[in-house]
Amino acid sequence: MIGRLTGIALLISAITAVLSYLISVSSLPPVFYLYALVIAAGIGLFSFGSIMRPILELKDLVGAGTVQELEATVRRTLEESSARLRELENRYESLLKATSSFAWVFEVEDGIIVNSSSAGLLGYEDFEVVGKRVEEIFEVFGREAVARKKDGSLARLEVSSFGNVYVARDEEEKRKLEKELAFLRAVVEHSVDAIVVTDIDSRIVAWNKGAETLLGYRAEEVIGKPLSVILPEEERERCRENFRRAVTEGFVKEVESSRITKDGRRIIVEQTLTSISVDGDIVGFVAIMRDITKRKETEEELRRICVELERRTRELSEYQRELEHLAKIVETSNDAIYSVNASGIITAWNKTAEKLFGWRKEEIIGRSASILLPEEIKNETEIVLRRLREGEKELRFETRRLHKNGKVVPVEVTISPIEPSSGFSVIARVVEGEDFERRLFRFNVERGRTYFTRSLDVAVEVLRDLSQFGYRAVVVGRRYPEELGFDADIYWVSERGDVNPDVSDIYELLIKLPGWKNAVLLDIDCLLSSCRFEDVYTMLQKVKDAFFILKKGVVVVHSASIGEEEEKLIKIECPEVTAKELKLPPEELEVLRIVYEKNRMGSRPSIKDVMSELGITRNTAKKRINSLASRGLLRVIKDGRAKVLEVSEEARLMLR
Amino acid sequence: MWESIRLIDPGRLRTLVNQRQIEFVTLLTVLTIGVVSFVISRANPAFSPLFNALILGIVLGYFVEQETKEVAKRLIGVMLPISVALYGFNMSMEPPKITGKILAAELLVVFTIFCSVYSASRFLRLGQKMSVLLSCGAGICGVSAIAIVAPIIKPRREEFSAAIIVITVVGLTAALIYTSMFKLGIVEKLAFLAGSTLPHTGLVKIATSPFGAEVESTAMAIKAVRIAMIAVVALILSLFYTEKKFYVPWFVMAFVATALIGSYLGEVASPLKNLSTILFASTLALIGTTVEVDEIYRVGARPLVAAYVGWLVSFAVFIAIQGEVP
Fold first, then answer.
1. How far apart are the first and last CA of chain B?
2. ipTM, 2 dp
3. Entry pTM
């Protein structure tokens, strides 16, 4: 040591001398001597450090202290060294035991085995082989040896020598182990799971193909790097905790954890972290990761779909409940409700409709809605559908419907479209009251009143009209059923008929008519032939009063033969029957008048005729004709390939 | 008020007050050392202010208590990145003012220094971080390069201190020998030799100033190229030594930014240069305070040998190519 220090001192001196000489020879400024000193000091410092390092370490080891302290330190150091040696010895023995199934360590001195460990490879105990000659155990002794086992069979061994210590390994066992190892290596290497082995400092030491595929890094890129290269920042603390748990518990299973791939993507993995221990010492960890990103995404998607499905099912249940509730409301409604599809076919029918119209549900479903319409408004369905198609939201009007038994039921209907171009629903409510009836009559007549008309046609039309509202048609006179064209109770007036041509009998008959809805046609022409006008007139006054007070119905007095004076007198008591006026635009009235005139002459004009007559375009003519048809004043009839026009009875009466 | 005060443990409160006091005194002291080191370097440019501050810090550290050293260690964590960031003002990022041939020759010499110092260090079984520190110190700009690279690669403090002292000693040796050899007429082209091989700017100045302003300015122009290299090297090392991918620490980016700003401002940035130098010197003094002398010399002579080998190889390369240098 002193020699080295002396050498260093000499070296520094030499350096200083050389540098000083250089400075003086080169006539450099004096400050360069300072530099030379600094250089020498620097070199000296580090050279001194190199030499003194062992001494300093020894000093550190023993520390500065008394002899007793030094002794204690040496004792402690010796104890520590002994403990370390014992530990190493234990490990060596453990190693030998662990390798006893495939390796046998023995020492040979002059051909005799003097020491042996774990001769279990050949089935011997250690004491059974110690002291034996090598030839007693081995048939052939060399690098590739053949030994005799305890059971007499031969075993091929591979023997390595370290001086006079030999290690014999069972070749078959070795090959088997190598095969197993290769198999395991192949399993690990080609596993689809990422298998990453780290050392105790969590630095990566093995990285299989699965890890390359999953995380993008090649093995040579990550071997030696910390595991943190694949961990997101927020996962690092959890990872540390997992390592701690793996040390204490052996393994940790992480159900879900994030990793960062080489291209920066974040994936979700399921990881099992297992500690690798050798003789109780943890030497590393193995992390097996499986990509569950897709699974998580699918789970998330399924969860979302499930929630959506639940929501929709809930909504559907609510709708269903609502529908059931609505169906109950519809079914038990006091209004008759039925629906009609776009083709005019009835598709729904409630109980009140059954009561109101007489049709049972199973009878009416599938039939045309026109079955419920009286003859004069047969095209109502068509008109309603057209108006709904044109965008009307709701139609409400008073109309008539036919009962199954043929009676007309006055109703107020509300029509709503179900869906665009898919039909409509009808809510029909029976409308009671004379006002309503009167509104629906085609003539200006009222119950309890008596009217006069010279036209038999008008009288018959009034009866026909009233009979559709439940009135009993009664004809008193000399009229045959053929003249009437509908069912009516006819009282033939003659001495041999139903009633005598006497004003008192006629009065009695009329007063005693049953019910309160009688539509009576009283033909006075047959009376006037046998009675004086004054008597007939008085009878009419009395009938008028009685019907007015009793509200027994409507009386229409008819005479075609009375003079103008008598007519005037009668008209004082009995106003003339008039058809209800229709408020028509003049241009439509013009069209109606042309068709009416042609009809009277026995021909039915076509649309083209109307166009040429009025000098209007086809569109304008069609528009006016449609409007009239919708009011029930005009009918468009197919005559072969052509369409011809005909006025309705109502229009005829109106125009007459 | 009293309740809240009583909630604080009096002992802990006293400790906190003491810590604040120690921090304040330590800061004040190292700032003083920084200023003194700066003044010394102005008087004699051979000794970098950073080297001066480190040596003075080591001397100070010999006298202070362990508690103060702990405080200094905490302060280093704050001051070092800031100092590096601001030290960019001292770095010139201007385009080289030398011809292409000289530039090529200089790059060859620098590359030789890098490789030879690194190889020699590794051959002498020095740690990788120590080898990088010595290579950067010898190849680029001495103490400054070591100080800038250190927070990136995070060497041990004794390695850092030893590297600074080693590079200063080797640089002084080279400067002294170059000057003598030029005076004796053994070598020519001192400007190129000093500019391309001497570790820090002060050494280039002392080696060339006795021979006129022209030689000095040429040497400084050559040296400027090596100074500019520190930004590039810092960025590359950031990429190598970071745990994250493609991550450059903020202070390295700030260092590059201040270097660009300083180059753009030119002479206007002179006060900033001085202030940042004083701040960096103070930080080096802090580092010196935390280092034990015996830790430094225990590093041994191997770094010194490696640095000398690097210098000798670079000198040999210079001899070989000096005929080609214009």
1. 79
2. 0.81
3. 0.42
